[in-house]
Amino acid sequence: MTDSAFQPTQPAATAVADEPHDDYLWLEDIHAEEALDWVKAQNALTEDAFQDADFEQTSAKILAILDSEDKIPGVVKRGAFYYNFWRDAQHPRGLWRRTTWESYTSDATEWEVLLDVDALAAAEGTPWVFSGATLLKPADPAELYERALVKLSPDGGDAVTVREFRLSTLSFLAAPEGFELPLAKTSVAWDGPDALYVASNFGPESLTKSGYARTVRRLERGQFLEEAPEVFSVPEDHVLAAVSKDNTRGFKRVFATDAVDFFTSRTYVLAADGSWELIDVPEDASVDLHHDWLLVSPRLEWQLPGQTVPAGSLVVADWEAWRAGSREVTFIFEHDDAASLEGWSFTKDFLLLNTLRDVSSKILVADPQNGWRTRVLELGEPLSSSSTGAVDDEDPETANDIWLTTTGHLTPTTLLRATLCGDDSVDILYRDENPAPEAASPVVVKSAPSFFDSSQFEATQHFAISADGTRVPYFQVSPKDMPLDGDNPVLMNGYGGFLISLSPSYLGSIGATWLSRETPAGRKASYVVANIRGGGEYGPRWHSAALKENRHRAYEDFAAVAKDLIARGVTKPERLAASGGSNGGLLMGNMITSYPELFGAISCGVPLLDMRRYTKLSAGHSWVAEYGDPDVPEEWEFIKTFSPYHLLDATGGSENHNGTEGEHERRAPASYFWTATSDDRVGPVQARKMAAKMRELGYRDVWFHEDLDGGHSGASDNRQAARNSARSQRFLWHCIGQ
Questions:
Q1: Which of 113, 454, 477, 545 has the fewest CB within 10 Å, making it most exposed?
Q2: 664 tagged catalytic
Q3: Are residues 468 and 425 in the same domain?
């Protein structure tokens, strides 16, 4: 097998932007005794202040919801069984298990436990966190699935060990007989029963600057990892390399991916002669090979001979004709200003499209046998989310079966299943003996319970006008007949990055806790979700509008929503809180430093904040395409305008965007930073440094908490997740709800 992937060249020498002096670099040594002593001291202060009776009650309510046995156990079909991973009060680390369809649809599902993660953790003395399993499809459809690769994290981080698991014996198969890979940020794929494609840390020069694998090896059973031959590699300044295999019967293919940056990649298919054949599509496009079809969705406008494919659209071409030079495509989904494509999947005879229109779901079904004609799958209500996916397109009994899920801010999730037909109907899978014709509709498989009384609330959508005149949508969940006198407590949430959309979803724990709170004057709380630029709510253009030098638009959008809430009389700054994590934590950092006059309190989780050094911390270099490269002087000039850590000036002031340009004042909303020591994606150090610097500069009401494990999600089990959420809520309510 020959690696014909792009190989690195020596870059020309360029100037590197100066790094501002940093008094808190010592906090970047994650496990240093001095740094951990600081963390323990901050944790003690925060816990003493906010872990009171209110905190315990809130935590208990959230945990009861997370552990509820009435939740819908999501399943994925593999062969004859339906697989699920489940956590509850008795199994906080979780159970990997499976069942039959007949049992799954019964009132009392009987599960076969494959792996008890709590028992494994106890037996091995390691607090394992289940990170997924990859099953090997048997060559004969009549055979049962027998082999799996199980990923386990020791602390909830992205680094995992990979072990081979036998489903017939419910046991791990130890090396050298079985596959067993050491702890690393590893991706792995089966290549038949006795070989794997492994992208991992193989030692010096095997990782990219982002900390991911830059080389892939093919490992055979019984072979030492260091003996496995390299089959694919990418340059060190790219994000990662990966090799995967499509085991669709009759269309088996091996793919290699060179992730150039977070939004551009090159996809190769293994040719008959063992070389890697580049799929000739734009590097910014999402690409999919399914059976005889090539599907392409470009992130930027794509010029083809005689036609233009708008950004965010989806087109299909005959794969063999494309390889031969044809550039004829058929449009399946054409992006417009109000719509976006969220994803797609195939049944045997149809293509399912999950789309959004003004941030509400719209499901389309395309028929390849009828010129890819699409029809709308009527499902759900306005301001709701619906999604669909194939059950198992290779099983003749389920070939055109689909899953359907519906949810809304005030509507618990419902799981349905249906069979697609060749006409404009959707048939139910299981009918009564003599159903009426009008009864032909998807059958409800499972329904989640209500966790709070939603009848006293209403969900509405509004649009704020941002600084450049852009209409920015947001969802508001508030008590019915709420007085618009500005005295209502409100919690805003947002993200605004990486093409991620915040569509409606059931507010189970938020409804049972935050929306159930009342001020001393009897005012109930509201919850707001801002669909700001940088996300994917309106497709790639919505995302691209807030990249790099235009990053400020995401923050202007969030501020515009806050201002609109105030102008409409929903709330006032003293009653307005906001929360966000990861990229949403960077959003919160910019609200703290650039829009302090709009908020009474901010909760900032697992955040990016030091944008001068973010590329040198954990996986930060992989996000250069989103934010820019701070080592490039020209790019640091715009990055520093949204680097919260540097927007704090030497006197403890922050630029105040209140209409008086250039004015500074010593103020900020009450601020709470939370993170996890084991977060190996963003890392805990940025939250540490921001909190320490704000404290030193004299900002009041600055709080910090860091859990040891939990990774980037901040939680390794439901109890930790509940306590993290409760601590944040307790802080925010203390600040705006009194």
A1: 113
A2: no
A3: no
Crossing angle between the packed helical segments 33-50 and 718-736, to the nearest 10 degrees? 60
Three-state helix/strand/coil letters over 178-225: CCEEEEECCEEEECCCCEEEEECCCCCCCECCCCCECEEEEEECCCCH
Domain that holds residue 678: 451-715
Structural domain count of the chain: 3
CA angle 486, 492, 497 (to 5 degrees): 145
Based on DSSP, count helices (H) and strands (E) in the chain, helices before strands: 14, 42
4-18, 268-282, 515-529, 721-735 — which is least confidently predicted?
A: 4-18
Question: Can you list the alpha helix ranges (DSSP code H) found in 461-601?
Answer: 508-512, 540-544, 552-567, 583-594
User: Is 621 a catalytic site residue?
Assistant: no
Position 429 scores a pLDDT of 46
Per residue in 506-535, pLDDT tens? 999 999 999 999 999 999 999 999 999 999
554 pLDDT higher than 60: yes
Return the structure tokens found at 136: 């090997």
Rounded Cα distance, 713 and 729, in Å: 17
pLDDT in tens, 83-97: 999 999 999 999 999
Residue 540, SS3 per DSSP: helix
For the whole model, what pTM was predicted?
Answer: 0.92
pLDDT of residue 714: 65
Contacts of 534 (CB under 8 A, 6+ apart): 495, 496, 497, 498, 542, 543, 545, 546, 547, 551, 553, 554, 583
Pairing of strands 526-530, 490-494: parallel
Among 594, 712, 713, 728, which one carries the catalytic annotation?
712
Q: How far apart are CA 162 and CA 473, in angstroms?
A: 43
Same domain, 536 and 466: yes
Quick check: 475 and 411 in contact, CB under 8 A?
A: no
CATH number for position 491:
3.40.50.1820
Q: Would you state the pLDDT for residue 630?
A: 97
Please identify which of the residues 582, 603, 618, 654 carries the catalytic annotation. 582
Strands of 360-367's sheet, edge to edge? 339-346, 351-357, 360-367, 373-377
Residue 435 lies in a domain: yes
